[in-house]
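Input set for joint prediction.
Command: fold jointly, output tokens.
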Amino acid sequence: MNALLPPDLLRRLEQLQLLAARRAKSSLKGERRSRARGLSVEFADHRNYVLGDDLRYLDWNLFGRLDKLFLKLYEEERELPLRIFLDCSESMNFGSPSKFDFARRVAAAVGYVALCGFDRVSIQCFPEPGATLQPPEAAARGALRSVRGKTSSLTFFKSLSQLTAGGAADFNASVKRGAMEARQTGAALVLSDFLDPAGYEAGLTALIGRGFQVTAIQILAPEELDPTTFGDLRLVDSESGAETEVTFGKYRMSAYRQSVANYLERLREYCTGRGIRFATVASSTDLGELLLKQLRTAEVWA
Amino acid sequence: MSFLSPIAFLFAIALPVVVVFYLLKRKRVVRLVPSTVLWQRFLAENQASAPFQKLRRNWLLLLQLLLLLLVVLALARPYFSGTTGEATLQVVILDASASMQATDESPSRFERARKEALTLVDGLKTGMGDGNQQMLLMVAGAAAEVKQSATSEKSALRRALLAAEVTDAPTRLAEALRVAETLTRDKPGAEIHLFSDGAGVDLTEFETKDLRLVYHPVGIRSSNLGIVSLDVKLNPEDPSRRAVFVNVANFSAESAETTLELLFDGQVIESKSVSVAATNSTPVVFAAAQPRNGIFSVRLNSKDDLAADNQASIVSRLPEPIRVLLISRGNRFLERAVAASGPNVEVSTATDLGAATQHADVVILDDVLPQTMPSGNVLAIHVGTTNWFPEGIGSLEAPPVVDWKNTHPLLRFVSLDNVQVASTLAVKTPTWAVSLVDSPSAPLVLAGEFGRQRIVWIGFDTLQSTWPLRISFPIFVANAMEWLNPATARSDLFQIRAGDAFRMPLGEASGHPVEATVTVPSGVVWKLPLGPDAREIVFGETSRQGVYRVNYGTNQVEFCANLLDATESNIAPRRELSLGRHGTVGAARVQRANLEYWRWFALGGLGILMFEWWWFHRRTA
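tokens >
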């Protein structure tokens, strides 16, 4: 059916539902409870009839007892817009399987769950190279801007698989802009390696400040966690081209691991301190394991 | 540990160079990584860019550094310095006397001393600059010889040392030390290293000298039985036989029993068992018939440490009559004494010197001054001739007898206790003679060799003294007849100490041979060319004891070289040499040489090199 997610995983994903921490604020109809009063089966409140109200919503039983006109209000069910920030920078190309592949499979899975729940999914890829993009990919990116309905899942998957990663990203700027652009806030999923030299704090803060319910999944290549190259190295940053000279040997492995662990710990602390659900995975992790266990534990969905 | 050429440590500059090579070698591998963020954090936390991280476990580099270090150390020539290592000139005296043949050290004292001298040579600083040391090698054997003049070249010194040979001669250390003392005088950094057992060393003359002497003693024990004297005389009891007097001394701390064999021309003719108490000597007398002129040898059958003194030989000639011409105005005491002096003495008396002197072996001038002096040996009584005493002759009234040399053969058994002299000729002791009897201001009796003439001179008229009345007078005359007998002089000629030169005058009868050959005891034959005017045969290669045969023309003579030296046979090792009464030279420290170790370092370096090679190939294989 598609290369991103195996069918049995899709079947299991269909049973899941994204958990929303607060009521949806979207203006479009959906299956999420919202603060808006409107049409649904769920009774919410009464209010006095005022001239011009639709007579269909009058509570006739109450009129019979009290001889006053009240209008029955129902909770309006709105959608939960899911915004996925997918890091498409050059650094995501590394790892086996590549971090980008892993990231878009996660995006596909989460997006599929959202689609099944009649939520709107929009994927924002960054960086945005603009005119240099190839037409099919540009079209795919455009198509991913807004996807709704389970029936769209096939095109959703297809578009996702057409994406490629490349170029240098500015995480903070991209995420901030995405947060500003969003007309309705909802859930936000950030899929990145969070290895931007400028840091990640500004972007995440912007999302929080806009009112997004943020889930951050950090995807790292296995090599980044446990380097396999030793000796006298001149390391070239794939995005910025900056060079770093390192003399590295097995005897320094534990020190390196400690450095990585420190970095991850700081990120985790930052996220949990701001109510961001956070998970770190290696790109070699089993997808089912991540989706069905780790994200459940992280209460991304249930 | 010190270093002979510390300048070689400049090579240690190569050590950092190796490290620099290892660092320069670091061609970094360029890797494209997703992000250097993690790495920069890692570096910031660990300072991993420090270049020496790489060196931390680099065994090859460590091996190379170690190898280089060893090579530099070897080049610097480390040594452990002894107490004597600083002298700029070291005079090494190697004792090659007979006692150094003792086998109490293995294989012998001489070899041991040679070995120690070689280590001293090894320790010689021969670097550049101030540390340069020179060594001079002397061997004190039969003669004190400088075997190697002062040099820094170790190979030359080793060669000279290995060429040195031990002799049967008594010690000539005093002579060697005298030379060494002049060599080291006025040289503040000079030292004399004496390798010796100390046997027979008399250093009294150096008591007041500034002798920087380092004594390296050898020798462990004193287990030796030796023949210390040998003589052949007429047998006083049986004139037809000869009496061989042997003195056997025991220098060990235990009494010893052995057998003493007497040989005549190589044939054993008698054997006696001898028992000698510890540190004592025992005289042994053999009475043997002698059919012809020949050589008596005695041999000790004892196994002791020193073999050189276990045999001795002596040339013995059949007694010949001595013709004595007594020129006197009448002296019955003298006539009687001369007539009684021996069985072979033929006395003729005359009042003046005539033609008869030509046939006389000994001429006695009793208060007579002849016109021409006789050419034979002379006993001169109260004869003042300016031939003999160029410094003038005076006279002295009633000189008391104060001293006499009873060790001289002329005064054997002679005591001059109560001899009074009325007047005497006063002379100064000339160079050719020694004074036998002394008064406070002038010698009374002189003896010596004037030219080839043996002369006994009595300064006073015996008739003007009480001497003829004493028992010592006839004994003295008999001794004088024996000593003046040309045969005695000749037999002395044929009896030398090992190491002394053999000199034999060539008489008219021997013709004019052009060449003499000498067969030494080891069988080697030396040829001595003789010039047309040669008056005597001189042969110096007598460092080994035994019987030497000399052939010249149609004649053959034999002479014997013997050790016969009690001080030399006393091989007790001396840990200390005494310089006179007050000064002593103790044994040097055990650590007496600068021992060089560069060979070991070089060997270690080679081992490291091979190990590194193996390691390197193991790693890349």
